[in-house]
Amino acid sequence: MTIQIILVILLTFIIHLISTLSYSVRIVGTRTKKIAVSFALFNIMVLISRTSNSFQAPLLAKWVENNINLKINPGTFELRMILLATSIATIAGAFLIPTFQRILSRAVLNFSIYKSVPKLILHAFTKIGIQQLRDEISIPNKNNFLVNSESRFPLKIFVFNIIAVAILTVGVLSSLYAGFITPDLRTTASSLSAIVNGFATIIMFVLIDPYLSILTDEVVEGKYSQSEFRKTIRYLIFARLIGTFTAQFLLVPFAQVIAFIAEII
């Protein structure tokens, strides 16, 4: 395994860890009644994720180019290790959510005092700030990982989330692997990842996000309980985990489809 792939695995872990933690932002918003501030502060972590993604893409592209120039098809082992990193990151994120919720809630409340992100960050490194961070560390309750059959969470949202996460997880990797199937059209194949991911993005923004937004507003208005809302987030994280595992089965079929499309367009 090359240093490029090792770096990509680490960056992938960071990206998907932050994506998993993002589910808890709505919980923090409903608890603190400061939804906009919660998302604004979380966007700092989103910047880290996007920066990681910016480095991830060229590293993977260079790995593909090097192998194609050497006329080597490395198989799918490295790519499957990257996919495995997404699953591990999701599990890690699920365990870290209780602690992250408490830390972000504290940050939201402190932001009301400092009203400045730089000042808030500096406060986190003070003696008081470090002590507050230590106080917010929480071990997940085993009940958080139990599935309640009486929950009102709709099955279609659960299934759509699995599909969307699976496609988003494997889209870029499949398009890159398609470059090994059709080396002469590797640039075209790589470009087709945007179309594949676009389909998953539509599912996210048309079906899943609006549903979550409605529930978030209903929790704030007292029409939907906090406990039920936490169960909903739990189901979405579980669906996300299934989606990352499903991506393993989609890697090669998607690559073959992308290679075929690259040849006929």
Number of strands: 0
Q: Rg from C-alpha positions?
A: 20 Å
What is the domain tally? 1
Q: Total helix count?
A: 10
Determine the mean pLDDT: 84
Structural class: mainly alpha
Q: Give the termini separation.
A: 34 Å
Order of helices and strands: HHHHHHHHHH
Profile the largest sheet.
none
Question: What level of helicity do the residues show?
Answer: over 70%
The outline comes out as: globular
Give unreliable regions as ranges: none
Strand fraction equals: under 5%
Please characterize this protein's 3D structure.
Helices cover 82% and strands 0% of the residues. The chain is mainly α. It has one domain (3-264). Helix 1 crosses helix 4 and helix 7 (155-181) packs parallel to helix 10. The radius of gyration is 20 Å and the shape is globular. The two termini are 34 Å apart. The model has no long low-confidence stretch (mean pLDDT 84).
Descriptors:
265 residues; mainly alpha; 82% helix
Summarize the structure.
With 265 residues, the chain is mostly helical. 82% of the residues lie in helices and 0% in strands.
Helix and strand topology:
Blueprint: H1 3-21, H2 25-32, H3 35-69, H4 77-114, H5 117-124, H6 127-136, H7 155-181, H8 186-191, H9 193-220, H10 226-264
Helix pairs in contact: 1-3, 1-4, 2-3, 2-4, 2-9, 3-4, 3-7, 4-10, 7-9, 7-10
